[in-house]
Specification:
Elements (H helix, E strand, L loop, with lengths): L16 H16 L8 H9 L4 E4 L8 H9 L3 E5 L3 H13 L4 E4 L5 H12 L5 E4 L1 H4 L2 H8 L3 E6 L21 H5 L5 E5 L4 H10 L6 E4 L7 E7 L4 H12 L4 E5 L3 H13 L4 E4 L5 H13 L4 E4 L12 E6 L6 H8 L9 E7 L1 H13 L4 H19 L4 H8 L12 H4 L4 E3 L1 H13 L6 H8 L5 H5 L16 H13 L3 E4 L5 E4 L4 H4 L6 E3 L15 H5 L1 H18 L3 H4 L2 H10 L4 H4 L7 H17 L7 H14 L4 H8 L3 H14 L4 H4 L4 H12 L6 H7 L6 H11 L2
Length: 721
């Protein structure tokens, strides 16, 4: 089966605001199959569709693409989408064509005749969106082609690439300022999920977006659970236990610092029966493309990669991102972990790090050709990353604070919140460690210093006469691993520095003086012994309660995807299949209410998926009520809606739907399900009372998006609207 892209009727360039809002919502519901916009999406769409510029800061999975795709359908002409990775353009185009959107890409992977056909369609106005790489866009021939085409807007994706101080700089992005100069009347929208305050200012300056409206939707990804642990010397075994216990059949990404470690880890995981593929710049272009395509199109594939892999990855069902080495900055960490859980379902960001990571990254910084100012910023970024690792408070709060997006409460979904680390008074141990550095002449690395503290019988120690020092053998209260961890913590706290040019020798800093003199105490995370990971079932609760239907739906999706040569998620996301599983639609009209089922996909796939559901209908008679009862039971045990969603591996909107049903039936009181003060409750009730039809979207807009749709649904249920 192949879907030919149809023509979606275009509107005038800048219709009236109310008309624009109605048209945008109609496209969202009928083309994309979603009930309502999320967060600031509606305002962004109106800004750009109305002819204005916008800078959009939105977390991965927050729906950035709709912010330019829907304006592209509302405005006359073709939207030009600047995307940094050629390899992913075709998948984005395939996904749009499934919705009936006329999309194409123009890049070096096309033959001459294919490129000519795309150019012809652009000149004739037969495209809604055209994806191009920045290098291609800047070619004189391409600019001339744009000069002779009707343009709807420019969308600059991954806009943080313009920042020379950022973690993912692309020199060609700087040239994109020409768009403002050459096409001053065409609206531009720049989008990114990763930008601290400095990077945001640089985006505005370099892309001439001073007059743009900035939409900052925050950086929180509540569905991701952040977990950071020390490398206890057996990183591969720790990784395997994590995957086996928690993500046995899931797609995931494992990041490593070096190509060799990528190859070794991928081969080792494959030898353990997992499907693990390497990805790094040392592989041929053909091999990289083959491995990436398999990851995007198949289930249960793990990519082991350097940072060469990932930008723009659209695969929504990546259930975990693991790091076997320390990332060089919080921006890099956030960007890479953000590739997990784009569908909004629970996902893990899991990381191991050790002292060697710190030394390696510092060596890379020192040996780079960058100027001293850039190196200084890089050192600051690495220190901030280390600080996040050594933290014993909520990791999410620290992460969001780095992006100037403060969170006033602990998240309850990171390792420090779920299992608060113990702290200890490390003052005396630190004094011993620092004294050992001083008395050995500040000329040795950590391994040697630990041997001295432990009193090792070593020829090198005897040769230097360090077996006669007062610090020789005084450290038996800690073992080798614990001393190494302590030294790493002292380095991350700035009490010690690493001299890269002197083979990693450790030296005292001025900050160490008050510790050595006993003028200041030092409290650190307690060093934990290795422990087994608690096994948990990561199959979504609905899926595990109805495995036959879940597998049948996935198999149908896979068969349709293979028939068309597209990734399975292009047909339907996992979240859409789960909604089918819960709702159990029996007619096309009922299926159309499932989130993510637009008109085009309903026509193309509706009957096929209804047959699957009806075939397994006898097994599912009570599943919906059973799963709702389980959510209510967990609520009564004291879990919050977000905690229920994570425990059951379902979306929070599904939890709220369960709670709203229980409120409507009288099984729950509103106060049991949501926490609202009197003023907030009265405000929401007032909005519903003055709403003509009781729909959630007008109430959501009336309240300026201040309250989640799930909360509104629960209040509506209590009012019996």
């Amino acid at each position: 089966m192949h879907i030919e892209a149809n023509t979606i009727p275009k509107q005038s360039p800048a219709p009236h605001r109310q008309q624009l809002q109605e048209q945008a919502l109609e496209i969202l519901q009928h083309t994309y199959g979603y009930e309502a916009f999320r967060g600031p999406q509606s305002d962004i769409v109106q800004q750009v569709a109305g002819g204005g510029d916008a800078l959009v800061l939105m977390p991965t999975g927050g729906g950035k693409s709709l912010c330019f795709q829907i304006p592209a359908l509302l405005r006359s002409g073709t939207a030009i989408v600047v995307s940094p990775l050629i390899a992913l353009m075709q998948d984005q185009v395939d996904a749009l064509r499934q919705y009936g959107v006329r999309a194409a890409c123009l890049n070096s992977s096309l033959s001459g005749s294919e490129a000519f056909e795309v150019e012809h369609r652009l000149r004739n106005g037969d495209l809604d969106l055209l994806y191009v790489a920045p290098e291609r866009l800047m070619m004189p021939r391409m600019l001339e082609l744009l000069d002779n085409s009707q343009l709807a807007l420019f969308a600059i994706d991954e806009a943080h690439c313009v920042s020379q101080w950022g973690h993912d700089f692309r020199p060609e992005y700087i040239q994109l300022s020409i768009l403002h100069q050459r096409y001053p009347g065409i609206p531009r929208i720049a989008l990114t999920a990763t930008a601290d305050a400095r990077t945001r200012q640089e985006i505005i300056q370099r892309l001439a977006l001073e007059s743009a409206v900035v939409f900052n939707n925050g950086f929180d990804r509540p569905n991701i659970r952040y977990r950071i642990a020390e490398n206890q010397g057996n990183a591969r075994d720790q990784l395997l236990r994590f995957i086996r216990n928690e993500h046995e059949h899931d797609a995931g990404i494992v990041y490593c610092l070096s190509r060799k470690r990528v190859d070794d880890t991928a081969a080792w995981l494959s030898s353990k029966g997992l499907t693990a593929l390497p990805y790094h710049a040392g592989l041929s272009q053909e091999q990289r493309q083959q491995n990436q395509s398999r990851f995007l199109r198949d289930d249960s594939v793990i990519i082991v990669a350097t940072i060469a892999f990932g930008m723009g990855i659209d695969k929504p069902d990546v259930r975990f991102v693991a790091h076997l080495n320390l990332p060089k900055s919080i921006e890099a960490y956030y960007q890479e972990t953000g590739r997990a859980g784009r569908d909004g379902l629970p996902a893990d960001a899991w990381m191991l790090y050790g002292l060697q990571d710190v030394i390696t990254l510092k060596q890379m910084q020192q040996n780079s050709d960058a100027n001293e100012a850039y190196k200084r910023i890089e050192r600051h970024k690495l220190d901030a990353m280390l600080g996040l690792c050594e933290l014993h408070d909520c990791r999410r709060q620290a992460l969001l604070s780095y992006f100037d997006d403060p969170m006033d409460h602990a998240c309850g979904n990171c390792d420090n919140c779920l299992t608060p680390p113990q702290t200890w008074d490390a003052t005396i141990a630190a004094q011993k460690a620092l004294s050992c550095v001083y008395r050995t002449g500040q000329r040795f690395g950590v391994n040697y210093l630990v041997d001295v503290l432990l009193g090792k019988e070593d020829d090198r120690i005897k040769q230097f006469g360090h077996n006669t020092l007062s610090t020789y053998g005084i450290g038996n209260e800690l073992n080798n691993s614990e001393w190494r961890t302590l030294y790493r913590q002292l380095i991350s706290r700035g009490l010690l520095s690493v001299d890269i040019e002197s083979h990693g020798s450790v030296q005292l800093t001025e900050a160490a003086r008050p510790i050595l003199k006993g003028e200041q105490t030092l409290v650190l995370r307690k060093m934990l012994k290795a422990s087994k990971t608690r096994q948990r079932n990561t199959t979504p609760m609905l899926a595990s309660s109805n495995p036959a239907l879940w597998e049948a739906l996935r198999n149908k999706r896979k068969a349709l995807a293979e028939e068309q040569g597209v990734p399975a998620y292009v047909i339907f996301h996992d979240a859409t299949l789960m909604d089918m599983l819960e709702r159990q639609p029996q007619t096309l009209e009922q299926l159309s209410r499932v989130s993510g089922v637009g008109e085009r996909k309903l026509d193309a796939y509706g009957e096929a998926f209804l047959e699957v559901i009806q075939e397994h209908g006898g097994e599912l008679a009570n599943s919906s009520s059973d799963t709702a009862s389980h959510s209510i039971e967990l609520l009564c045990q004291g879990l919050s809606p977000l905690e229920i969603a994570h425990k059951r591996d379902i979306t929070i909107s599904t939890v709220y739907r369960h709670l709203a049903g229980a409120i409507r039936s009288g099984e729950l009181e509103l106060a049991d399900a949501v926490v609202l003060d009197d003023k907030a409750l009265q405000e929401i009730q007032f909005a519903f009372e003055h709403s003509e039809d009781g729909r959630l979207k007008p109430v959501f807009d009336f309240l300026d998006g201040e309250y989640d749709y799930g909360i509104l649904e629960c209040v509506k249920a209590a009012m019996h609207v």
